[in-house]
Protein backbone atom coordinates (compact mmCIF):
# COMPACT_ATOMS: atom_id res chain seq x y z
CA UNK A 1 0.00 0.00 0.00
CA UNK A 2 1.46 3.41 -0.95
CA UNK A 3 2.78 5.65 1.80
CA UNK A 4 0.84 8.92 2.20
CA UNK A 5 3.19 10.44 4.80
CA UNK A 6 4.67 12.86 2.23
CA UNK A 7 1.42 13.48 0.34
CA UNK A 8 1.11 17.14 1.35
CA UNK A 9 4.68 18.03 0.40
CA UNK A 10 4.54 16.08 -2.84
CA UNK A 11 1.16 17.50 -3.87
CA UNK A 12 2.14 21.11 -3.20
CA UNK A 13 5.41 20.70 -5.11
CA UNK A 14 3.75 18.99 -8.07
CA UNK A 15 0.91 21.49 -8.37
CA UNK A 16 3.18 24.49 -7.95
CA UNK A 17 5.09 23.37 -11.02
CA UNK A 18 1.91 22.38 -12.86
CA UNK A 19 0.50 25.89 -12.34
CA UNK A 20 3.39 27.23 -14.41
CA UNK A 21 3.08 24.53 -17.08
CA UNK A 22 -0.64 23.81 -17.26
CA UNK A 23 -0.74 22.11 -20.65
CA UNK A 24 -1.19 18.60 -21.96
CA UNK A 25 2.41 18.25 -23.10
CA UNK A 26 3.82 18.88 -19.62
CA UNK A 27 1.18 16.66 -18.05
CA UNK A 28 1.96 13.80 -20.41
CA UNK A 29 5.62 13.98 -19.44
CA UNK A 30 4.84 14.00 -15.70
CA UNK A 31 1.75 11.81 -15.44
CA UNK A 32 3.75 8.96 -13.94
CA UNK A 33 4.82 11.28 -11.12
CA UNK A 34 1.19 12.23 -10.48
CA UNK A 35 0.09 8.59 -10.49
CA UNK A 36 2.87 7.44 -8.17
CA UNK A 37 3.35 10.34 -5.75
CA UNK A 38 -0.18 11.79 -5.59
CA UNK A 39 -2.93 9.54 -6.93
CA UNK A 40 -1.81 6.26 -5.37
CA UNK A 41 -1.20 7.74 -1.88
CA UNK A 42 -4.48 9.69 -2.05
CA UNK A 43 -6.42 6.54 -2.91
CA UNK A 44 -4.61 4.79 -0.08
CA UNK A 45 -5.64 7.56 2.32
CA UNK A 46 -9.25 7.34 1.16
CA UNK A 47 -9.25 3.59 1.76
CA UNK A 48 -7.61 4.02 5.17
CA UNK A 49 -10.02 6.67 6.46
CA UNK A 50 -13.29 5.29 5.06
CA UNK A 51 -13.92 2.79 7.92
CA UNK A 52 -12.92 5.42 10.48
CA UNK A 53 -15.48 7.88 9.09
CA UNK A 54 -18.08 5.11 8.96
CA UNK A 55 -17.45 4.44 12.66
CA UNK A 56 -17.71 8.15 13.45
CA UNK A 57 -20.96 8.65 11.56
CA UNK A 58 -22.57 5.27 12.05
CA UNK A 59 -23.40 5.32 8.33
CA UNK A 60 -22.12 3.63 5.17
CA UNK A 61 -19.35 5.76 3.66
CA UNK A 62 -17.89 5.94 0.17
CA UNK A 63 -14.74 7.84 -0.75
CA UNK A 64 -13.75 9.55 -3.97
CA UNK A 65 -10.67 11.26 -5.39
CA UNK A 66 -11.58 14.14 -7.70
CA UNK A 67 -10.14 13.87 -11.17
CA UNK A 68 -7.11 15.86 -12.23
CA UNK A 69 -8.70 17.03 -15.48
CA UNK A 70 -10.84 20.17 -15.33
CA UNK A 71 -14.27 20.44 -16.91
CA UNK A 72 -13.70 23.48 -19.10
CA UNK A 73 -16.89 23.31 -21.17
CA UNK A 74 -18.52 26.28 -19.45
CA UNK A 75 -15.42 28.05 -18.15
CA UNK A 76 -13.47 30.96 -19.59
CA UNK A 77 -10.36 29.41 -18.04
CA UNK A 78 -9.37 26.66 -20.47
CA UNK A 79 -6.32 25.37 -18.58
CA UNK A 80 -6.82 21.60 -18.65
CA UNK A 81 -5.73 20.47 -15.18
CA UNK A 82 -6.61 21.26 -11.56
CA UNK A 83 -3.80 22.64 -9.45
CA UNK A 84 -5.06 21.01 -6.28
CA UNK A 85 -5.74 17.53 -4.92
CA UNK A 86 -9.21 17.07 -3.45
CA UNK A 87 -10.90 14.02 -1.97
CA UNK A 88 -14.32 13.49 -0.41
CA UNK A 89 -16.12 10.94 1.71
CA UNK A 90 -19.92 10.77 1.52
CA UNK A 91 -21.88 9.46 4.51
CA UNK A 92 -24.94 7.78 3.01
CA UNK A 93 -28.02 8.89 4.92
CA UNK A 94 -31.54 7.54 4.52
CA UNK A 95 -32.82 11.06 3.94
CA UNK A 96 -32.91 13.81 1.35
CA UNK A 97 -29.17 14.23 0.81
CA UNK A 98 -25.88 12.68 1.85
CA UNK A 99 -23.37 14.46 4.08
CA UNK A 100 -19.74 15.08 3.11
CA UNK A 101 -16.33 15.06 4.74
CA UNK A 102 -13.51 16.44 2.61
CA UNK A 103 -9.77 16.98 2.53
CA UNK A 104 -7.91 19.19 0.10
CA UNK A 105 -4.33 20.18 -0.69
CA UNK A 106 -3.77 23.31 -2.77
CA UNK A 107 -0.81 25.51 -3.49
CA UNK A 108 -1.62 27.76 -0.52
CA UNK A 109 -3.84 25.63 1.72
CA UNK A 110 -4.24 22.26 3.39
CA UNK A 111 -7.77 21.99 4.70
CA UNK A 112 -10.35 19.56 6.00
CA UNK A 113 -14.05 20.05 6.52
CA UNK A 114 -17.49 18.90 5.62
CA UNK A 115 -21.18 19.57 5.39
CA UNK A 116 -23.57 19.85 2.44
CA UNK A 117 -22.37 22.02 -0.42
CA UNK A 118 -25.79 22.91 -1.79
CA UNK A 119 -29.16 22.22 -0.22
CA UNK A 120 -31.83 20.77 -2.43
CA UNK A 121 -35.16 22.53 -1.97
CA UNK A 122 -36.66 20.14 0.66
CA UNK A 123 -33.39 20.19 2.62
CA UNK A 124 -33.29 23.99 2.48
CA UNK A 125 -36.81 24.15 3.87
CA UNK A 126 -35.87 21.77 6.71
CA UNK A 127 -32.67 23.74 7.39
CA UNK A 128 -34.55 26.99 7.84
CA UNK A 129 -37.15 25.32 10.03
CA UNK A 130 -34.47 23.79 12.28
CA UNK A 131 -32.48 27.04 12.47
CA UNK A 132 -35.57 29.02 13.40
CA UNK A 133 -37.00 26.59 15.95
CA UNK A 134 -33.79 25.27 17.51
CA UNK A 135 -31.53 28.28 17.13
CA UNK A 136 -29.87 28.05 20.54
CA UNK A 137 -28.58 24.52 19.94
CA UNK A 138 -27.48 25.30 16.41
CA UNK A 139 -25.76 28.55 17.36
CA UNK A 140 -23.93 26.66 20.10
CA UNK A 141 -22.65 24.16 17.52
CA UNK A 142 -21.48 27.03 15.31
CA UNK A 143 -19.74 28.77 18.21
CA UNK A 144 -17.91 25.56 19.09
CA UNK A 145 -16.79 25.12 15.48
CA UNK A 146 -15.42 28.65 15.41
CA UNK A 147 -13.61 28.02 18.71
CA UNK A 148 -12.06 24.95 17.04
CA UNK A 149 -10.77 27.17 14.21
CA UNK A 150 -13.40 26.22 11.63
CA UNK A 151 -14.73 28.76 9.16
CA UNK A 152 -18.22 28.55 7.70
CA UNK A 153 -18.75 29.35 4.06
CA UNK A 154 -20.28 32.79 3.54
CA UNK A 155 -24.09 32.87 3.16
CA UNK A 156 -25.38 32.85 -0.41
CA UNK A 157 -28.17 35.35 0.22
CA UNK A 158 -27.71 39.02 1.01
CA UNK A 159 -30.90 39.20 3.07
CA UNK A 160 -32.74 36.95 5.49
CA UNK A 161 -35.40 35.11 3.46
CA UNK A 162 -38.99 36.32 3.63
CA UNK A 163 -41.03 34.97 6.52
CA UNK A 164 -38.23 35.52 9.05
CA UNK A 165 -37.31 38.56 11.13
CA UNK A 166 -34.59 40.56 9.37
CA UNK A 167 -32.84 40.78 12.77
CA UNK A 168 -33.15 37.05 13.46
CA UNK A 169 -30.40 35.90 15.91
CA UNK A 170 -29.42 33.19 13.42
CA UNK A 171 -29.88 35.36 10.35
CA UNK A 172 -26.50 34.42 8.86
CA UNK A 173 -27.51 30.75 8.95
CA UNK A 174 -30.91 31.45 7.43
CA UNK A 175 -29.15 33.18 4.54
CA UNK A 176 -27.26 29.99 3.68
CA UNK A 177 -28.22 27.73 0.78
CA UNK A 178 -25.72 25.10 1.83
CA UNK A 179 -23.65 24.61 4.98
CA UNK A 180 -19.94 23.86 4.81
CA UNK A 181 -17.27 24.34 7.47
CA UNK A 182 -13.53 23.86 7.07
CA UNK A 183 -10.29 24.54 8.88
CA UNK A 184 -6.71 24.97 7.79
CA UNK A 185 -4.43 22.12 8.86
CA UNK A 186 -1.11 23.61 7.82
CA UNK A 187 1.71 22.38 5.62
CA UNK A 188 3.21 20.24 8.38
CA UNK A 189 -0.01 18.39 9.21
CA UNK A 190 0.13 14.66 9.78
CA UNK A 191 -2.37 13.56 7.18
CA UNK A 192 -4.11 10.66 8.87
CA UNK A 193 -4.15 12.04 12.43
CA UNK A 194 -5.01 15.66 11.71
CA UNK A 195 -7.66 14.92 9.09
CA UNK A 196 -9.45 12.51 11.41
CA UNK A 197 -9.19 15.01 14.29
CA UNK A 198 -10.79 17.67 12.08
CA UNK A 199 -13.59 15.31 11.10
CA UNK A 200 -14.25 14.43 14.73
CA UNK A 201 -14.39 18.12 15.70
CA UNK A 202 -16.73 18.75 12.76
CA UNK A 203 -19.03 15.87 13.64
CA UNK A 204 -21.64 17.90 15.61
CA UNK A 205 -22.38 19.91 12.46
CA UNK A 206 -22.64 16.89 10.19
CA UNK A 207 -24.72 15.09 12.79
CA UNK A 208 -27.10 18.08 12.80
CA UNK A 209 -27.29 17.99 9.00
CA UNK A 210 -28.08 14.28 9.09
CA UNK A 211 -30.99 15.02 11.43
CA UNK A 212 -32.18 17.71 9.02
CA UNK A 213 -32.08 15.54 5.90
CA UNK A 214 -33.76 12.67 7.74
CA UNK A 215 -36.49 14.81 9.35
UniProtKB/TrEMBL annotation:
Pfam family, one: DUF2461
Domain of life: Bacteria
Transmembrane feature ranges: none
PANTHER family: CHROMOSOME 12, WHOLE GENOME SHOTGUN SEQUENCE, DUF2461 DOMAIN-CONTAINING PROTEIN
Protein name: TIGR02453 family protein
Amino acid sequence: MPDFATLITDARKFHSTLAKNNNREWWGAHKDTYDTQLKAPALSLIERLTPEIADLSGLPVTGKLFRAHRDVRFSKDKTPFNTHLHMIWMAKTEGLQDVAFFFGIGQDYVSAGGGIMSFEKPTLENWRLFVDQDQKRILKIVERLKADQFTLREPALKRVPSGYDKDHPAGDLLRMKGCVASRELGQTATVETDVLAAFAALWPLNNLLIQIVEA
